[in-house]
Amino acid sequence: MKLKNAYLLIAGLLVISSCKNDDDTIGEVVPPRLLSEVTVEDDAEIVEFLKTHFYNKEEFDAPPEGFDFKIRFDTIAGENSSKQSLFDSPKLITQSITVDSEDFGLDDGEKISLKLYLLIAQQGVGGQPTIGDNSFIQYEGLLLDGNLFDASANQPARFYLGEPGLRVGFAQAVLKLKTGLGPIENGDGTVSYTDFGVAAVFMPSGLAYFNQTVSSIPAYSPLVFKLQALGYEANTDIDGDGIPSILEDLDGDGDLNNDNTDTELEAINGKIPNHFDNDDDGDGILTIDEIELDADGKFVGFLDTDGDGTPDHLDNDL
């Protein structure tokens, strides 16, 4: 399935300045690298990590008292020489995702299949979110060398999985996990969950930031995220137009950001995909007034007043 990496912001060309002496060139424009070239290198780095590291499988198989259900990696060496590698673990699955180089602002016409590696240490017992739902996630983001670049606080972070700025690899990993039971009030203003999904995702830079340098993440860096999928809001309606966001994926390709019914009516710099638009067809009538709702204001179905096969909220010629 093609998932256009429209979530990524377009990075500018890297400029390297030198000030060794007055005769030096002030700056040198370095062209972006080819997606195909970087992808091969990223995959080799990820596979090397997977083959030389293991995780705390025994703790997930028989959780000790007080176990926090966090994945921990260590190197296969010395007293750990007999450990099963991440690469050989039956808990490791892969997914191929196709991206276009133009999604990164490149004009070389490349279309490349990238591989995402997902270690599911524990599957949850709850529901499973869709790309249109808000999810509650505990996470840590690391480089392959183990350096931590981001992490959630003690309470779960809320992510809208259809958000354009959310990394493709991160969102796709969450979609593979079932959530837990909860929330359970702890009596101190915090909540907790039990029996939630736990995973680690290894993604090439083409499913992350690619040619961008973001904070402490260098350009062209493969990333690792450790995830705990705690809960989610089923049928999230992110724009409040009465339609669950997942139903605004009109072409069913798993990308909410390429479905925009009134794109020709919107300003060049103001194009809004349907899941963020409360007037999907741009006819001046709010979408919520062109669909069927129940007495509680919950979505029931679509209307087609003129019987032309196009729902009212997508039909601006009524």
From TrEMBL:
Reactions catalysed: [protein]-peptidylproline (omega=180) = [protein]-peptidylproline (omega=0)
Enzyme category, top tier: isomerase
MF term (GO), any: peptidyl-prolyl cis-trans isomerase activity
Domain named PPIase FKBP-type: residues: 132-233
Protein keywords: Isomerase, Rotamase
Domain of life per record: Bacteria
EC number(s) given by UniProt: 5.2.1.8
InterPro entries named in the record: EF_Hand_1_Ca_BS, PPIase_dom_sf, PPIase_FKBP_dom
A Pfam family that the UniProt record links to this protein: FKBP_C
Record family assignment: Belongs to the FKBP-type PPIase family.
Name of the protein in its database record: Peptidyl-prolyl cis-trans isomerase
